[in-house]
Design goal:
The complex is a heterotetramer, with 2 copies of chain A (137 residues) and 2 copies of chain B (80 residues). With 137 residues, chain A is of the alpha+beta class. Chain A has 3 helices and 10 strands; from the N terminus they run βαββββαβββαββ. In chain A, the strands form 3 sheets. In chain A, strands 1-6-8-2 form a 4-stranded mixed β-sheet, with helices on both faces. Chain A has a 4-stranded antiparallel β-sheet with strand order 7-5-9-10. In chain A, strands 3-4 form a two-stranded antiparallel sheet. In chain A, a hairpin with a 2-residue loop joins strand 9 and strand 10. Chain A is elongated and about 50 Å long. Chain B has 80 residues and is an alpha+beta fold. Helix content of chain B is 22%, strand content 31%. Chain B has a 5-stranded mixed β-sheet. Chain B has a two-stranded antiparallel ribbon with strand order 3-6. The chains are: A alpha+beta (137), B alpha+beta (80). Chains A and C meet through helix 1, strand 2 and helix 3 of A and helix 1, strand 2 and helix 3 of C. Strand 2 of chain A pairs antiparallel with strand 2 of chain C.
Chain lengths: 137, 80, 137, 80
Protein backbone atom coordinates (compact mmCIF):
# COMPACT_ATOMS: atom_id res chain seq x y z
CA UNK A 1 0.00 0.00 0.00
CA UNK A 2 1.39 3.36 -1.05
CA UNK A 3 -0.79 6.39 -0.56
CA UNK A 4 -1.05 10.09 0.14
CA UNK A 5 -4.19 10.93 2.07
CA UNK A 6 -5.82 14.11 3.33
CA UNK A 7 -7.44 12.74 6.49
CA UNK A 8 -6.43 10.47 9.40
CA UNK A 9 -4.15 7.60 8.43
CA UNK A 10 -5.91 4.26 8.99
CA UNK A 11 -2.95 2.73 10.80
CA UNK A 12 -4.63 -0.62 11.45
CA UNK A 13 -5.31 -1.05 7.74
CA UNK A 14 -1.71 -0.19 6.86
CA UNK A 15 -0.46 -2.83 9.29
CA UNK A 16 -2.95 -5.38 7.92
CA UNK A 17 -1.75 -4.62 4.39
CA UNK A 18 1.69 -6.10 5.17
CA UNK A 19 0.57 -9.04 7.35
CA UNK A 20 1.42 -12.43 5.86
CA UNK A 21 1.46 -15.98 7.26
CA UNK A 22 5.17 -16.31 6.50
CA UNK A 23 6.09 -13.07 8.29
CA UNK A 24 7.52 -13.26 11.81
CA UNK A 25 8.01 -9.54 12.37
CA UNK A 26 6.15 -6.34 11.62
CA UNK A 27 7.98 -3.10 12.38
CA UNK A 28 6.11 0.18 12.11
CA UNK A 29 7.17 3.81 12.18
CA UNK A 30 4.56 6.39 13.11
CA UNK A 31 5.56 10.03 12.68
CA UNK A 32 3.48 12.11 15.07
CA UNK A 33 3.00 15.86 15.35
CA UNK A 34 5.01 17.24 18.28
CA UNK A 35 3.78 20.09 20.44
CA UNK A 36 7.10 21.86 20.09
CA UNK A 37 9.89 22.39 17.61
CA UNK A 38 13.23 24.14 18.16
CA UNK A 39 12.05 24.85 21.72
CA UNK A 40 9.00 26.76 20.50
CA UNK A 41 5.39 25.65 21.13
CA UNK A 42 3.68 24.41 17.96
CA UNK A 43 -0.09 24.80 17.62
CA UNK A 44 -0.55 22.64 14.51
CA UNK A 45 1.14 21.64 11.25
CA UNK A 46 0.30 21.86 7.61
CA UNK A 47 1.82 19.51 5.01
CA UNK A 48 1.86 20.04 1.28
CA UNK A 49 2.95 17.54 -1.36
CA UNK A 50 3.81 17.47 -5.02
CA UNK A 51 1.24 14.69 -5.30
CA UNK A 52 2.25 12.88 -8.49
CA UNK A 53 5.95 13.04 -7.71
CA UNK A 54 5.54 12.18 -4.04
CA UNK A 55 3.65 8.98 -4.93
CA UNK A 56 6.34 8.08 -7.44
CA UNK A 57 9.14 8.65 -4.93
CA UNK A 58 7.31 6.62 -2.27
CA UNK A 59 7.02 3.80 -4.81
CA UNK A 60 10.76 4.02 -5.50
CA UNK A 61 11.53 3.72 -1.77
CA UNK A 62 9.33 0.60 -1.48
CA UNK A 63 10.95 -0.95 -4.56
CA UNK A 64 14.42 -0.26 -3.21
CA UNK A 65 13.55 -1.69 0.21
CA UNK A 66 12.04 -4.86 -1.32
CA UNK A 67 15.20 -5.25 -3.40
CA UNK A 68 17.70 -4.67 -0.58
CA UNK A 69 16.10 -6.78 2.16
CA UNK A 70 14.15 -10.07 2.14
CA UNK A 71 10.84 -8.49 3.07
CA UNK A 72 7.33 -9.82 2.91
CA UNK A 73 5.90 -6.38 2.22
CA UNK A 74 6.21 -2.66 2.92
CA UNK A 75 3.53 0.03 3.01
CA UNK A 76 3.92 3.79 3.33
CA UNK A 77 1.11 6.30 3.79
CA UNK A 78 1.76 10.04 4.12
CA UNK A 79 -0.89 12.51 5.10
CA UNK A 80 -1.17 16.10 3.81
CA UNK A 81 -3.17 19.13 4.92
CA UNK A 82 -3.66 20.38 8.45
CA UNK A 83 -2.72 18.13 11.37
CA UNK A 84 -3.14 18.58 15.11
CA UNK A 85 -0.68 17.68 17.87
CA UNK A 86 -0.42 13.91 18.30
CA UNK A 87 -1.82 13.06 14.86
CA UNK A 88 0.20 10.93 12.44
CA UNK A 89 1.75 12.59 9.40
CA UNK A 90 3.36 9.42 8.07
CA UNK A 91 3.01 5.72 8.82
CA UNK A 92 5.27 2.94 7.56
CA UNK A 93 4.78 -0.80 8.09
CA UNK A 94 7.30 -3.46 7.09
CA UNK A 95 6.92 -7.23 7.43
CA UNK A 96 9.64 -9.85 7.12
CA UNK A 97 10.45 -13.37 8.22
CA UNK A 98 13.17 -12.09 10.55
CA UNK A 99 13.15 -8.90 12.55
CA UNK A 100 16.52 -7.43 11.58
CA UNK A 101 15.35 -6.95 8.00
CA UNK A 102 12.09 -5.27 9.00
CA UNK A 103 13.93 -2.86 11.33
CA UNK A 104 16.58 -2.00 8.74
CA UNK A 105 14.08 -1.48 5.92
CA UNK A 106 11.74 0.62 8.06
CA UNK A 107 14.58 2.94 9.09
CA UNK A 108 15.79 3.15 5.50
CA UNK A 109 12.27 4.04 4.35
CA UNK A 110 11.75 6.95 6.74
CA UNK A 111 15.33 8.23 6.34
CA UNK A 112 14.99 8.20 2.55
CA UNK A 113 11.49 9.66 2.59
CA UNK A 114 12.76 12.66 4.50
CA UNK A 115 15.31 13.44 1.79
CA UNK A 116 13.63 12.41 -1.48
CA UNK A 117 9.86 12.67 -1.26
CA UNK A 118 8.57 16.12 -2.29
CA UNK A 119 6.49 16.97 0.76
CA UNK A 120 6.94 20.05 2.95
CA UNK A 121 5.68 21.00 6.36
CA UNK A 122 4.69 24.38 7.67
CA UNK A 123 4.83 24.84 11.42
CA UNK A 124 2.18 27.04 12.97
CA UNK A 125 2.85 28.88 16.22
CA UNK A 126 0.79 31.23 18.35
CA UNK A 127 2.46 34.15 16.60
CA UNK A 128 2.99 32.98 13.04
CA UNK A 129 4.01 30.19 10.73
CA UNK A 130 7.16 28.99 9.00
CA UNK A 131 7.79 26.64 6.10
CA UNK A 132 10.38 24.10 7.20
CA UNK A 133 13.02 23.30 4.64
CA UNK A 134 15.31 20.29 4.66
CA UNK A 135 18.87 20.22 3.41
CA UNK A 136 19.77 19.83 -0.24
CA UNK A 137 21.46 16.42 -0.65
CA UNK B 1 4.32 26.34 -23.90
CA UNK B 2 5.98 25.20 -20.70
CA UNK B 3 4.11 24.53 -17.47
CA UNK B 4 5.84 25.69 -14.27
CA UNK B 5 4.79 24.43 -10.85
CA UNK B 6 5.86 25.81 -7.46
CA UNK B 7 5.61 24.30 -4.00
CA UNK B 8 5.78 25.31 -0.35
CA UNK B 9 7.65 28.59 0.30
CA UNK B 10 8.36 28.96 -3.44
CA UNK B 11 4.66 28.89 -4.18
CA UNK B 12 4.14 31.61 -1.56
CA UNK B 13 6.92 33.69 -3.12
CA UNK B 14 5.52 33.36 -6.65
CA UNK B 15 1.95 33.74 -5.44
CA UNK B 16 0.71 30.98 -7.74
CA UNK B 17 0.98 27.20 -7.70
CA UNK B 18 1.45 27.07 -11.46
CA UNK B 19 2.00 29.34 -14.40
CA UNK B 20 2.53 28.80 -18.12
CA UNK B 21 5.37 30.41 -20.05
CA UNK B 22 5.95 30.60 -23.78
CA UNK B 23 8.50 28.16 -25.15
CA UNK B 24 9.01 27.42 -28.82
CA UNK B 25 12.11 25.27 -28.77
CA UNK B 26 14.69 23.67 -26.46
CA UNK B 27 16.01 25.75 -23.60
CA UNK B 28 17.73 25.10 -20.28
CA UNK B 29 16.10 25.02 -16.86
CA UNK B 30 18.61 27.69 -15.83
CA UNK B 31 17.38 29.99 -18.60
CA UNK B 32 13.77 29.55 -17.45
CA UNK B 33 14.81 30.19 -13.86
CA UNK B 34 16.78 33.31 -14.81
CA UNK B 35 13.75 34.75 -16.59
CA UNK B 36 11.64 34.04 -13.52
CA UNK B 37 14.22 35.86 -11.40
CA UNK B 38 13.73 39.05 -13.41
CA UNK B 39 10.05 38.94 -12.38
CA UNK B 40 10.70 37.67 -8.83
CA UNK B 41 14.11 38.92 -7.67
CA UNK B 42 13.77 37.15 -4.30
CA UNK B 43 14.24 33.84 -6.15
CA UNK B 44 17.96 34.64 -6.07
CA UNK B 45 18.21 33.33 -2.50
CA UNK B 46 16.71 30.00 -3.57
CA UNK B 47 19.32 29.26 -6.21
CA UNK B 48 21.78 27.36 -3.94
CA UNK B 49 19.10 25.09 -2.48
CA UNK B 50 16.61 24.89 -5.34
CA UNK B 51 15.30 21.49 -6.39
CA UNK B 52 14.08 20.95 -9.94
CA UNK B 53 11.95 18.25 -11.52
CA UNK B 54 11.09 17.80 -15.17
CA UNK B 55 7.93 15.80 -15.80
CA UNK B 56 8.01 14.50 -12.17
CA UNK B 57 11.66 13.34 -12.36
CA UNK B 58 14.37 15.04 -10.32
CA UNK B 59 16.62 17.06 -12.63
CA UNK B 60 18.94 20.07 -12.45
CA UNK B 61 19.36 23.66 -13.62
CA UNK B 62 21.62 22.44 -16.40
CA UNK B 63 19.03 20.13 -17.96
CA UNK B 64 17.14 20.94 -21.15
CA UNK B 65 13.39 21.44 -21.38
CA UNK B 66 11.12 21.33 -24.40
CA UNK B 67 7.68 22.68 -25.23
CA UNK B 68 5.02 20.64 -23.46
CA UNK B 69 7.26 19.76 -20.53
CA UNK B 70 6.19 20.32 -16.94
CA UNK B 71 8.85 21.91 -14.76
CA UNK B 72 8.58 21.89 -10.94
CA UNK B 73 10.59 24.15 -8.64
CA UNK B 74 10.71 23.56 -4.92
CA UNK B 75 12.84 23.89 -1.77
CA UNK B 76 14.51 20.90 -0.06
CA UNK B 77 11.85 18.57 1.23
CA UNK B 78 10.74 18.38 4.88
CA UNK B 79 8.10 15.65 4.94
CA UNK B 80 7.89 12.69 7.27
CA UNK C 1 2.57 -0.68 30.12
CA UNK C 2 4.24 -3.99 30.93
CA UNK C 3 2.10 -7.08 30.80
CA UNK C 4 1.86 -10.80 30.14
CA UNK C 5 -1.54 -11.76 28.75
CA UNK C 6 -3.24 -15.00 27.77
CA UNK C 7 -5.41 -13.69 24.92
CA UNK C 8 -4.98 -11.40 21.89
CA UNK C 9 -2.68 -8.44 22.49
CA UNK C 10 -4.63 -5.17 22.23
CA UNK C 11 -2.06 -3.54 19.96
CA UNK C 12 -3.93 -0.28 19.61
CA UNK C 13 -4.01 0.16 23.38
CA UNK C 14 -0.29 -0.57 23.65
CA UNK C 15 0.45 2.11 21.04
CA UNK C 16 -1.86 4.56 22.82
CA UNK C 17 -0.07 3.85 26.10
CA UNK C 18 3.15 5.45 24.76
CA UNK C 19 1.58 8.35 22.80
CA UNK C 20 2.53 11.78 24.14
CA UNK C 21 2.22 15.31 22.77
CA UNK C 22 5.99 15.79 22.89
CA UNK C 23 6.72 12.56 20.96
CA UNK C 24 7.53 12.79 17.27
CA UNK C 25 8.04 9.10 16.61
CA UNK C 26 6.45 5.83 17.66
CA UNK C 27 8.24 2.66 16.59
CA UNK C 28 6.55 -0.68 17.17
CA UNK C 29 7.71 -4.27 16.91
CA UNK C 30 5.08 -6.94 16.42
CA UNK C 31 6.26 -10.54 16.67
CA UNK C 32 3.88 -12.71 14.65
CA UNK C 33 3.49 -16.48 14.45
CA UNK C 34 5.03 -17.79 11.21
CA UNK C 35 3.55 -20.68 9.28
CA UNK C 36 6.94 -22.34 9.06
CA UNK C 37 10.11 -22.79 11.06
CA UNK C 38 13.36 -24.41 9.96
CA UNK C 39 11.64 -25.21 6.63
CA UNK C 40 8.92 -27.19 8.36
CA UNK C 41 5.22 -26.19 8.33
CA UNK C 42 4.01 -25.02 11.73
CA UNK C 43 0.37 -25.54 12.71
CA UNK C 44 0.37 -23.39 15.85
CA UNK C 45 2.54 -22.33 18.76
CA UNK C 46 2.34 -22.55 22.52
CA UNK C 47 4.19 -20.13 24.83
CA UNK C 48 4.88 -20.66 28.49
CA UNK C 49 6.30 -18.11 30.93
CA UNK C 50 7.76 -18.00 34.39
CA UNK C 51 5.18 -15.32 35.11
CA UNK C 52 6.64 -13.46 38.10
CA UNK C 53 10.17 -13.50 36.71
CA UNK C 54 9.12 -12.64 33.15
CA UNK C 55 7.30 -9.52 34.37
CA UNK C 56 10.33 -8.53 36.40
CA UNK C 57 12.70 -9.01 33.45
CA UNK C 58 10.38 -7.04 31.13
CA UNK C 59 10.42 -4.24 33.67
CA UNK C 60 14.22 -4.33 33.74
CA UNK C 61 14.33 -4.00 29.93
CA UNK C 62 12.01 -0.97 30.01
CA UNK C 63 14.06 0.64 32.79
CA UNK C 64 17.30 0.07 30.86
CA UNK C 65 15.81 1.48 27.65
CA UNK C 66 14.48 4.60 29.41
CA UNK C 67 17.92 5.09 30.92
CA UNK C 68 19.93 4.60 27.73
CA UNK C 69 17.81 6.66 25.32
CA UNK C 70 15.80 9.87 25.67
CA UNK C 71 12.43 8.17 25.31
CA UNK C 72 8.95 9.39 26.05
CA UNK C 73 7.78 5.90 26.97
CA UNK C 74 8.11 2.19 26.21
CA UNK C 75 5.53 -0.59 26.56
CA UNK C 76 5.99 -4.34 26.18
CA UNK C 77 3.24 -6.96 26.19
CA UNK C 78 3.95 -10.67 25.74
CA UNK C 79 1.25 -13.25 25.21
CA UNK C 80 1.33 -16.82 26.51
CA UNK C 81 -0.74 -19.92 25.75
CA UNK C 82 -1.77 -21.22 22.34
CA UNK C 83 -1.40 -18.93 19.31
CA UNK C 84 -2.44 -19.41 15.71
CA UNK C 85 -0.51 -18.44 12.56
CA UNK C 86 -0.44 -14.65 12.12
CA UNK C 87 -1.27 -13.84 15.73
CA UNK C 88 1.05 -11.64 17.79
CA UNK C 89 3.14 -13.23 20.51
CA UNK C 90 4.84 -10.00 21.56
CA UNK C 91 4.25 -6.32 20.91
CA UNK C 92 6.59 -3.46 21.78
CA UNK C 93 5.88 0.26 21.35
CA UNK C 94 8.44 3.02 21.91
CA UNK C 95 7.88 6.76 21.66
CA UNK C 96 10.52 9.48 21.52
CA UNK C 97 11.01 13.02 20.31
CA UNK C 98 13.34 11.83 17.54
CA UNK C 99 13.09 8.64 15.57
CA UNK C 100 16.63 7.28 15.96
CA UNK C 101 16.10 6.78 19.68
CA UNK C 102 12.78 4.98 19.24
CA UNK C 103 14.28 2.63 16.63
CA UNK C 104 17.36 1.86 18.73
CA UNK C 105 15.38 1.28 21.93
CA UNK C 106 12.79 -0.93 20.20
CA UNK C 107 15.52 -3.14 18.70
CA UNK C 108 17.30 -3.29 22.04
CA UNK C 109 14.05 -4.30 23.77
CA UNK C 110 13.24 -7.23 21.49
CA UNK C 111 16.88 -8.39 21.28
CA UNK C 112 17.19 -8.36 25.06
CA UNK C 113 13.77 -9.93 25.62
CA UNK C 114 14.83 -12.90 23.51
CA UNK C 115 17.80 -13.58 25.76
CA UNK C 116 16.68 -12.62 29.27
CA UNK C 117 12.92 -13.00 29.69
CA UNK C 118 11.95 -16.49 30.91
CA UNK C 119 9.41 -17.43 28.24
CA UNK C 120 9.59 -20.48 26.00
CA UNK C 121 7.82 -21.50 22.85
CA UNK C 122 6.74 -24.92 21.72
CA UNK C 123 6.26 -25.37 17.99
CA UNK C 124 3.46 -27.67 16.91
CA UNK C 125 3.64 -29.50 13.58
CA UNK C 126 1.33 -31.93 11.82
CA UNK C 127 3.38 -34.79 13.26
CA UNK C 128 4.46 -33.60 16.68
CA UNK C 129 5.75 -30.76 18.80
CA UNK C 130 9.10 -29.44 19.98
CA UNK C 131 10.13 -27.06 22.73
CA UNK C 132 12.41 -24.44 21.23
CA UNK C 133 15.43 -23.55 23.30
CA UNK C 134 17.58 -20.47 22.91
CA UNK C 135 21.28 -20.25 23.59
CA UNK C 136 22.77 -19.85 27.02
CA UNK C 137 24.36 -16.38 27.15
CA UNK D 1 11.67 -26.89 52.88
CA UNK D 2 12.76 -25.67 49.46
CA UNK D 3 10.34 -25.07 46.58
CA UNK D 4 11.57 -26.17 43.15
CA UNK D 5 9.90 -24.94 39.95
CA UNK D 6 10.46 -26.27 36.43
CA UNK D 7 9.59 -24.78 33.07
CA UNK D 8 9.20 -25.81 29.42
CA UNK D 9 11.04 -29.01 28.49
CA UNK D 10 12.37 -29.35 32.03
CA UNK D 11 8.84 -29.39 33.37
CA UNK D 12 7.99 -32.16 30.89
CA UNK D 13 11.05 -34.14 31.97
CA UNK D 14 10.25 -33.85 35.68
CA UNK D 15 6.54 -34.37 35.07
CA UNK D 16 5.63 -31.61 37.56
CA UNK D 17 5.74 -27.84 37.47
CA UNK D 18 6.82 -27.70 41.10
CA UNK D 19 7.93 -29.94 43.91
CA UNK D 20 9.07 -29.37 47.47
CA UNK D 21 12.20 -30.90 48.89
CA UNK D 22 13.39 -31.08 52.47
CA UNK D 23 16.06 -28.56 53.41
CA UNK D 24 17.13 -27.77 56.93
CA UNK D 25 20.13 -25.51 56.38
CA UNK D 26 22.24 -23.85 53.72
CA UNK D 27 23.15 -25.88 50.66
CA UNK D 28 24.26 -25.15 47.09
CA UNK D 29 22.08 -25.14 44.01
CA UNK D 30 24.47 -27.72 42.58
CA UNK D 31 23.80 -30.07 45.48
CA UNK D 32 20.03 -29.74 44.96
CA UNK D 33 20.49 -30.35 41.24
CA UNK D 34 22.69 -33.40 41.84
CA UNK D 35 20.06 -34.96 44.09
CA UNK D 36 17.43 -34.31 41.40
CA UNK D 37 19.69 -36.05 38.89
CA UNK D 38 19.65 -39.22 40.94
CA UNK D 39 15.85 -39.27 40.56
CA UNK D 40 15.86 -37.97 36.94
CA UNK D 41 19.07 -39.12 35.23
CA UNK D 42 18.11 -37.36 31.98
CA UNK D 43 18.77 -34.03 33.73
CA UNK D 44 22.46 -34.72 33.02
CA UNK D 45 22.05 -33.40 29.45
CA UNK D 46 20.66 -30.11 30.79
CA UNK D 47 23.63 -29.30 32.96
CA UNK D 48 25.62 -27.31 30.32
CA UNK D 49 22.65 -25.13 29.32
CA UNK D 50 20.67 -25.00 32.56
CA UNK D 51 19.45 -21.63 33.83
CA UNK D 52 18.82 -21.14 37.53
CA UNK D 53 16.88 -18.50 39.45
CA UNK D 54 16.63 -18.07 43.20
CA UNK D 55 13.54 -16.18 44.34
CA UNK D 56 12.99 -14.88 40.77
CA UNK D 57 16.57 -13.62 40.35
CA UNK D 58 18.96 -15.21 37.89
CA UNK D 59 21.63 -17.15 39.76
CA UNK D 60 23.99 -20.10 39.20
CA UNK D 61 24.70 -23.65 40.27
CA UNK D 62 27.34 -22.36 42.65
CA UNK D 63 24.99 -20.15 44.63
CA UNK D 64 23.66 -21.02 48.08
CA UNK D 65 20.03 -21.65 48.92
CA UNK D 66 18.31 -21.62 52.27
CA UNK D 67 15.09 -23.10 53.67
CA UNK D 68 12.09 -21.14 52.35
CA UNK D 69 13.81 -20.19 49.09
CA UNK D 70 12.19 -20.78 45.73
CA UNK D 71 14.50 -22.29 43.14
CA UNK D 72 13.58 -22.27 39.42
CA UNK D 73 15.25 -24.45 36.81
CA UNK D 74 14.74 -23.86 33.10
CA UNK D 75 16.33 -24.13 29.67
CA UNK D 76 17.59 -21.07 27.71
CA UNK D 77 14.67 -18.83 26.89
CA UNK D 78 12.96 -18.71 23.47
CA UNK D 79 10.25 -16.08 23.83
CA UNK D 80 9.56 -13.14 21.58
Amino acid sequence: MIDIVDSSIARKKVVESVAQASAGAIVTFDGTIRNQSRNKPVTHLYYEAHPEMALKELKTICDQAMHRWPLNDISIVHRVGRMEIGESSVFIAVSSAHRVDAFAACQFAIDTLKTTVPIWKKEHYEDGEVWIEGYKQ
Amino acid sequence: MLKLRFFASLKDLIGESEIEVKLEGETSVREVFNQLKTRFPKLETYEPILLVAINHEYSSLDASVFPGDELSFFPPVSGG
